[in-house]
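Format notes (please read before filing issues)

Several people have asked whether sequences and C-alpha cells are stored in separate files. They are not. Every record keeps both together, in the order shown below: the sequence lines, then the C-alpha cell lines. Line labels are part of the format and must not be stripped during preprocessing.
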Amino acid sequence: MGEHLGVLHRIARAFAAGADQHDLLQELMLAVWRAAPSFRGDAAPSTFIFRVAHNRAMTWRRSEARRRHRHTEYERLRVEEGAETDPLLARLYAAIRKLEALDRSLLILSLEGQSYSEIAAIHGLSETNVGARLTRARKKLTQLMENDDGL
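Then the structure lines:
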C-alpha cells in the first residue's frame, strides 16, 4: 500500500479539511486494509484501492455532515451557565427522563453525534435495532412534550 499512499493523501485532502484530513486518511488506510482480502485481481491494485478509498471517503463525508448538523442542533439546546432556568429545556430533560433507560441512552448518544454503528457497538445492538428504537424514542419524546402540562 505504500506506493499508493499518495492517492490516499489526495483523497483525504479532497474530502476533508484541517485536522480531519489526518483522521480521514487513517480511515481510508483501515478501509483498504480491511478490503484487501476481497481483492480478486480483476483490476489493477490502484483501481481497487481508489474505489475502496473513494467509497469510504464519500461515506465519511455524509456521516460528518450528519454529525455536524446534530452537533449544531445539540449546541442550540445545550445547557449553558444559568440556562437551567429555561422552562423549555427543563421540560425537555424532564421528558427525556421519562423514557426507558435504554431509549434515553440511545437518544443522548445520537444527540452527541454518535453514528448508528457506534451506538450499536456500545449497546450490543444491530444498527437496524438502533434506528428503530431511536425513531420510537423520538416519537415518544415528541408525545411527552406535546402532552406535557408543565411537567
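For reference, the curators noted about this record: The helical segments are 5-15, 20-35, 45-77, 87-97, 101-111, 116-123, 127-146. Residues 45-77 form the longest helix (33 residues).
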